[in-house]
Amino acid sequence: MLDGAAKVPELVAEAARLGQKAMAITDHGYLLGAYEFWSKARKAGVKPIIGLEAYLTPGTARGDKTRVRWGEPHQKADDVSGGGAFTHLTLLSETTPGMHNLFRMGSLASLEGHYFKPRIDRELLNRYSDGLIAFSGCPSGEIQTRIRLGQYAEAVRAAGEFQDIFGKENFYIELMEHNLELERRVAKDLLRLSKEIGAPLVATNDLHYTREEDESAHEVLLAVQSGSKLTEPTYEQGGSRFALSGEGYFVRSAMQMRELFKELPEALSATLEIAERCNVEFTEQVGKYMPHFPVPEGEDEISLFVKEVEAGLEKRFNGNVPQDARDQAKYEVEVITSKGYAGYYLVVADFINWAKDNGIRVGPGRGSGAGSIAAYAMSITELDPLKNGLIFERFLNPERMSLPDFDIDFDERRRGEVIDYVTRRYGEENVASIVTYGTIKAKQALKDAGRVLDYPFAMGERLTKAMPPAVMGKDISLSGIFDPEDPRYAEAGEFRTLYESDPDAKRITDTARGIEGLKRQWGVHAAGIIISSEPLLDIIPIMRRESDGAIITQVDFPAGEDLGLVKMDFLGLRNLTILDDALQNITMNGKEPVLIEDVPMDDRPAYELLQRAETLGVFQLDGGGLRQLLKLMKPDNFEDISAVIALYRPGPMGADSHTKYALRKNGLQEIQPIHPELAEPLEDILGTSYGLIIYQEQVMAIAQKVAGYTLGQADLLRRAMGKKKKEILDEQFEGFREGMLKNGYSDIAIQTLWNVLVPFSGYAFNKAHSAAYGLVSYWTAYLKANYPTEYMAALLTSTRGDKDKSAIYLNECRHLGITVLPPDVNASVGTFTAVGEDIRFGMAAVRNVGQNVVDAIVAAREAKGEFTSFTDFLDKVPSTVCNKRTIESLIKAGAFDSLGHTRRSLLLVHEQAVDSVIDVKRKEAVGQFDLFADLGAEEAGGTSFQVTVPDLPEWDKKQKLTFERQMLGLYVSDHPLAGVEHVLNAAADVGIASLLQDEHRPDGATVTIAGLVTGVQMKISKAGKAWAIATIEDLEGAIEVMFFGETYMAYSTVLAEDAVVVVKGRLRRRDEEMSLMAMDLTLPDVTSTAEGAPLVLKLPEVRCTAPVLSRLREVLEAHPGSSEVHMRVTRPGRATVVRLEDQLRVERSSPLFGDLKALLGPSALV
């Protein structure tokens, strides 16, 4: 990676253009490109030879990490490569068994021999030499290294060993000509050695890029690898820039090679002889290595599968299976068994049901697999496909050639346990993760090129900003910008103008085009796991990731699928973790346990919550734009939830389908049929979506209904439409038209329908996926509506490492009237917990407090009882907890408040107290001290030390909250802006969190925000002018705002921490970061309004419970004043205003507003 600048298709195309009949791939140490090269070379008419430039240990065993030096100290530059770790050896596969021996060797080099590089040794060469041809390698080979060191006899000995290992006719002395001093120094001795031992010569050319003109792009790529600029000196020049010495690292023609080796024609002839000898084949057979499910005696996979489906149907329908379900199951079983996938269903059902049996939450389904009633019967999925209008053929049909693919979601914390289970069940030699590749994309190529060419960072930024915006996360390629045939060519006019008018822009772009698309690094598929019926070592090359020991394939997907391997997707879904935590919170909070799969699907509070768009934290529905759509749509059934997930995407939104659906649903827009002839035939298909095509299944159903297609044929039609290739569409249209004509439709109706289907099929969504995910959305909405405290506690636990998200959800708790209590050593555990209708902060979220400390505190509390004082706490907990930084953090976070001391008092004495207790615990640990002897208090449970805590007043609110924020990452017990939100909301046109989540607001847009200044960094520009970066925060988020020039001069005096400000500015996007450039700043009036005006509170009647009203009285009594308090009690259809007694008059102030909001929610303040 970041070494070769040749793309395989271009490489083999160039070889074909030059008339080269064969080409060998010999990547360093790995076989990652072997299959792609074999496949692409054959298509180009070039014979592929699969090889490896192996790293060979310097005579040591592959597991031995001893560095070896063969020469004298002054010969270090000529000695063993890799600082003494390895030499090089070129290996080629002569036969297919030989290629698999090469795979085994390459795999074991990584699994057992990795030391800087994956290394083989003599033992592996002896074991797997059959079917291989070996060359002496490049200048870093063992023989060349020995010659450079003046050890000719050792070179001869090594060459003789290789002849013994591979056979005399299979070992060649390799010659290269790249105008290198290293080559010239060994050339004569290589020829001499060849003659002495009878080893044939072979001429090779080391390839690192395709064409001669690609040399500069390759030089740039190497500079990217070493993080250097082209102006910096290379390694050979004493610098740190990696660059190849010599020349000619491209695909040379036969004529060029003959000229280079004109004095050694036999070395060139050998290349043709070797090419003739090398003949290898990959076996391409989809599903060949489908894992075998272990079946009971007397059964096979098919018989067991049929029984499992039948039993599952009886269980799903409580012994009363509808006939349509039986018929569908019978049809699916025939298709599944005829295609050989019965075992696949059994394997998937097995690990899913193992997970469920072991308390691991599994998602209800994902992707098209939810359309299978067999999967539903076997508990692979949780949605009845017939009830929800899902289609099996979208997942699997007789016409489909590719494998089915169940994507399974698990609780993200326990996904690894399921993978461990399948590894044990099918054997670790049969299971592996899947390699992926990260390529250099257009924007990254521009930035890399600009940096390597030593341009300012701003130049790369200027170019990337001139590119058209990404569509669905994908940018136009640099080649597409200049290709009139590219569908987005017209959008790239600004970039082309810059390219044509600015020589620097042109230079950077031309350089970037040379590296765009090259592989940057390999990674691991986020979810995919290979489970094979045979050991993977016998099928493909594999490797070990050094960081964690994970076993990974050296072929990606779909290459693995072509070779017969089967991928299972094990995805970790955070929302399943939240769901599981919320259900546990309900039980732990003393409420009746909830079985989420059995909750009613027509729950009124859940749908009212969706209609109000109070969906922060609801799966798939918590984005700002989605909440606006929910308000417009007013969902009142599950079909609406499925639809909103499918509609809120660029394609449907570009056609305004989301708005049309919402308006038509609520009777605000007339439903127009696609064509009058189609109104009645398509009513059953499009009725639930108000005449709109939303789902891929609808496209398939329409083709079946009006054109007589089977659903398998309809799936092929859907796929063809999605590709948008004219010749394919024209061919498909003829069959579609013929089918509709047979059914009596007119040409105009046919053409009208086709013109609608083709564009819509490009972004129509998979209903099985949206319905399955919609079910998780509904479950989370149900919990938030009916168990808000328990659900929000789970949500806060899930985001405890993300202070921005935590701030949003903490503010949502305030909206919901849920009080979030600070952590407490006597009540908290590691996570957020529901305590009645409040939430208790988890101690693991406190800065400097690890999970081990939390576990120790909880264990001490459970074993020895609640802590009665600060001294008692220090006495009961183990010494691992008694760390000054940990105790300080707990104090500042408020975790000792329940012990009766102010935080200020505890902070004053905590260091002395910790020193005392550590001394006691240390003496006790070594038997030098009887903890209770001095006091004679063994029976009374006394302590051998005492901490005197002074009675100091608490810090003021500002200091208290500042420390709280430092330790918890956010304000908990209060917020400086509590009570003035209505002022900020009126002044700002967008909340900060909403702004940060808005992907559609363009760079440079003008926005107004309001909030608290929480930090100011003063800066001086290169020109000597002052400017500043201010962090401005509201109750949900924070953003950096830049103040430059006159704007800074105008507002520098008021730009101070704790100031409440309103800022108008221009949006500034840089990669994934967003900030503002200030244009204007004002100070809003946050003082209380006229003291005589009544304070009006609005409260739903259902919230007027005795505990709430009692706490409300306490809040009002704590803020006495002259303003009357009026209560507007609301119930459906009416409201009653009640004037509270004069003893409850209040002083209007921010602290009062904050307390009221924390108790009643923000909507209570009128």
Automatic annotation (TrEMBL):
Coiled-coil boundaries: none
Location of this chain's protein in the cell: Cytoplasm
This protein's record includes keyword Transferase: yes
Domain Polymerase/histidinol phosphatase N-terminal as annotated: residue spans: 1-58
EC number: 2.7.7.7
Pfam families, alphabetized: DNA_pol3_alpha, DNA_pol3_finger, HHH_6, PHP, tRNA_anti-codon
Organism the protein comes from: Serinibacter salmoneus
Single GO biological process annotation from the record: DNA replication
Catalytic activity: DNA(n) + a 2'-deoxyribonucleoside 5'-triphosphate = DNA(n+1) + diphosphate
Molecular function as annotated in GO: 3'-5' exonuclease activity; DNA-directed DNA polymerase activity; nucleic acid binding
Family per record: Belongs to the DNA polymerase type-C family. DnaE subfamily.
GO cellular component: cytoplasm
Identification of the protein by name: DNA polymerase III subunit alpha
Keyword terms, alphabetized: DNA replication, DNA-directed DNA polymerase, Nucleotidyltransferase, Transferase
InterPro entries, per the entry: DNA_pol3_alpha_NTPase_dom, DNA_pol3_alpha_thumb_dom, DNA_pol3_finger, DnaE2/DnaE/PolC, DNAPol_HHH, NA-bd_OB_tRNA, PHP_dom, Pol/His_phosphatase_N
CDD domains noted in UniProt: DnaE_OBF, PHP_PolIIIA_DnaE3
